[in-house]
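Risk register update: the risk of archive-format incompatibility is retired. Evidence:
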Amino acid sequence: MIARVTTFTIDGLEPRAVVVEADLRAGLPAFTIVGLADRAVSEARERVKAAILNSGFEFPQRRVTVNLAPAHVRKAGGGFDLAIACAILAAEGALSAADLAPLAVFGELSLGGEVRACPGTLAAAEGARRLGLDGLVVPLDRSREAALIDGVCAVGIACLAELPAALRGDGPPPPPPLAPAAPLVPAPDLSDVRGHAAPIEALTVAAAGAHHLLLSGPPGTGKTMLARRLPSILPPLESDEAIEVTRIHSVRGLHGEAGLVLRRPFRAPHHTTSAAGLVGGGRPPVPGEATLAHRGVLFLDELAEFDRRALESLRQPLEDGHVTIARDQRALRFPTRFSLVAATNPCPCGRGGRACRCGEADRARYRRKLSGALLDRIDLLVAVERPTADELAADPVTTSERALGRVAAARERQRDRTGCLNGDLTPAALRATAGADDGAERALRALYERGAVSARGRDRLLRVARTIADLDGVDGVGRAHVLRAAAYRQDESQASVAA
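Archived output:
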């Protein structure tokens, strides 16, 4: 007899349906799994057999062949255990094949029969909805996560022995999805910062328009302190964004809670991270830090200390909002719609200016680590100077609560106008909706003709000017907005335009 059960393999971030077929034949007892399975799936033979026996079922004393279809799709991970056990028990008659037909099954088994969680439960629930299935059988501690997907009934079981009752409907009702709750740990607040009025305003502009920001200055001036307070002025994730971010973290095994990820991601990888660690890669390909920061912030401290190849690998994600990883004759696409915030010292010794002790060759080597092509994709380049003694003793420039109010209002204006943030606008949409007046156009033209900005930099300058206008609450972009945006790019050639 042949029994079939639906499950999923996680291909990058996407669920791909896999049909587990179990065939029982007369002959010497044997247990074989075929279908391009990796070692973790092949080892399921021992886990499944022990789990079935320790759950009170009889393991067939016949020739058992399990096929994972389609055969050309590589299967990886422990999420096939429960589906393999269900297919064998259905073929033996211990479970109803008709009850299993409208359901998908996803989970790992222990030797004692307990059902364990495995990465990608939320993605599997999305896959079940796409297939039009009625529900998904998952570990009990992941049933709330699966229930976050509308239209999917999450059937949670703690052990394999509970499965027959759950299929008959005798088990407890499926749990409702968790209601969003406020984050328990507050983010660091801008009220901790003294001085730095210009960098704080640049941080607010970056948050309002999802722009990329580079902070440059000597050690100890507050670059890292400012960057780590950016999440406190970002609005919470919207419902569709929260589902997207939760699915990414679930696939990577970073989501240890049952509900949605509520706070925007803030990723701060070490400068020794490789290119694959930043943008994704490996075999099989897995998302990198750029994807884990999707809809949030990617903070690169000590930017010039990163490997040049790793930094250059960020050029496409910064421009396109996604990265495509090609491995083993297949291509996987990972989303990378994040705000880049970077911090760097002006030179190897970190002092810069007249106090610098570095030789010219050392400074040139240090600058070469940051290519012009990468810097051209960063919207705001801000110098963070050492605050004065009076500024350290004074009250804070602002608080995160006040800055968040400005950011939320500016983002609302952008979404009402274009449906997205200014940092995500295409060049065509930017030109159609920026509302630049004649003075703004003349200032942009002058900057471009003087070589102060590239063609890409001109568009990025206009995006920042549009965000500054949104923070000011005005509909059009004027010359003053363009000049303020130009001042954030730290180019001495812009000074004559402002004159």
